[in-house]
Amino acid sequence: MESGTVIPAIDLNDLLANHQELSESIIRKIKPLYEFGKYLKYGQYPFFMEGIDAYHQKVLATINLILEIDIKAVVDIDYNHIVKLKRLLYSIATSVPFVPNISKLSNKIEVSRPYLIKALNILEKSQLIKQLHKSNKGISYLSKPEKIYLNNTNLIHTLAGGNPEKGNLRETFFLNQVSVRHDVKLPPAGDFFVEEKFIFEIGGKNKTAKQLSGQKNYFIVKDELEMGAGHSIPLWMFGFLY
Q1: What is the DSSP letter of 218?
Q2: How far apart are CA 202 and CA 169, in angstroms?
Q3: Backbone angle region of 80, left / alpha / beta, with phi > 0 → left and psi within -120 to 50 → alpha
Q4: Is the Cα torsion angle 207, 213, 215, 216 positive or negative in sign?
Q5: Residue 66: DSSP 8-state
Q6: Are 151 and 126 in contact (CB under 8 A)?
Q7: What sign results for the dihedral spanned by CA atoms 127, 51, 157, 5?
Q8: Domain boundaries, the chain
Q9: How far apart are CA 181 and CA 242, in angstroms?
Q10: In Å, how far are 10, 104, 194, 216 from 13, measured between CA atoms?
Q11: Which residue from 226, 192, 221 is spatially nearest to 209, judged by alpha carbons?
């Protein structure tokens, strides 16, 4: 939107098979690591077109609008619970990432377990969070998530301030981008299981495949890497899936 550069969307299978050639074609047009760093902080919402100085204040105002006005319009929830949901969002923003203990969390927020899971589902529909489950098989409306992420990295920067946890940023970006068109679950090994076929481990540029020993169809997704090779793919490339 800033430069008018047009780069076609990339199919996931094409990305996995030809990421090196595809990254070369993109690098000719933009500086991906520079643009990626900007996107993580203030690229998710069109507010950035009005200037970045007040960007996070506008995102925070939108979060409050969703919690205090929009959700209350469809769910019977009192103000004290909204305050506790705000604290929950902050906890997710500062985690590595957030692995919920639903029983302890429901006691802390002082609501029932079914009520809490319902609230999490509403937060997800509001595009404030994303829940990661082990499998879609047998998942019901009251199934607890294995991990909870904020919907996108701009929310993390807004709620966590100037020093968000890198691992949380990386995984949040990957889940946010890939889940738009693909089913994403929690695998037995690795960070994400996409379409019940591909296993992805997310990390920095020195991340190895040690944790995925013996696994098939695995990929190491690396931050701070301009161009990958073999099973190692730059994290920024998953921003071109749609």
Answers
A1: E
A2: 10
A3: alpha
A4: positive
A5: I
A6: no
A7: positive
A8: 12-52+164-240, 55-160
A9: 8
A10: 9, 40, 11, 15
A11: 221
The more confident residue out of 136 and 204 is 204
- R_g of the chain computed on alpha carbons: 18
235 C-beta neighbours (distance < 10 Å), count: 26
pLDDT on residue 139: 53
pLDDT of residue 142: 60
Provide the token pair at 178. 């890939």
Contacts with 131 (C-beta within 8 Å, 6 or more apart), sequence order:
120, 121, 124, 145, 147, 148, 149
Instruction: List pLDDT tens digits, range 8-46.
Output: 999 999 999 999 999 999 999 999 999 999 999 999 999
- In this structure, whether the domain defined by 55-160 belongs to CATH 1.10.10 is answered with yes
Work out the number of other CB atoms within 10 angstroms of the CB of residue 122. Answer: 19
Per-residue model confidence (pLDDT) at position 157: 95
- Quote the distance between the C-alpha of residue 166 and its chain's center: 12
| Structure tokens that stand for 213 in this block | 């020993």
**Residue holding tokens 């589902």?**
121
Q: 73 phi and psi, to 5 degrees?
A: -75, -20
Measured CA to CA, the distance from residue 173 to residue 36 in angstroms comes to 10
Q: Which two tokens stand for residue 31?
A: 């500086």
Q: If you count them, how many residues does the chain have? A: 242
% of the chain residues with pLDDT over 70: 97
Mean pLDDT for the chain overall: 91
pLDDT digits (tens, 9 = 90+) for 109-149: 777 888 888 889 989 999 999 999 997 655 555 678 999 99
